[in-house]
Amino acid sequence: MQSIRNALRTARPVQNTPREIIRNSTPQATAARADRLIVMRERAVLATLDNDRADLLQQLHAHLGSRAFADTLSHMKAPRQVDALRLLPTDKRAAVFRELSTAQRAIWHQACKAEAMRDESLRNKLLAPLRAQWQRLRRNNGKTGA
Q: CA quadruple 6, 9, 13, 17: dihedral positive or negative?
């Protein structure tokens, strides 16, 4: 039985591994393949963002790894990059952030700064009536205490 297996194993034609095929292929074919991979990854990220599926985005990150995920984000528009990073949990976001380019980091920092300013203005807008009421009470208490 073992000899039959050995005979079958030696009778098969030698097949190249995918790594050898890529190594032996022409540069144009490799570039075209890389472009197709980038497009497929982008579409996957955009689909998860459009459907607001953080779980699928986490699976995609686990599958691609932080570096490939950051590279995929680099081909997308700034708001989409920020949306994708926001959907990731903080530990995975930090791992991807370490792999981002300087320009991508600047986009993220700018978005965080804008969000902080929006939060500040919203907080001021919501607290304005309370502050006015508090000042009225202070003025009234000062008049009655004199």
A: negative
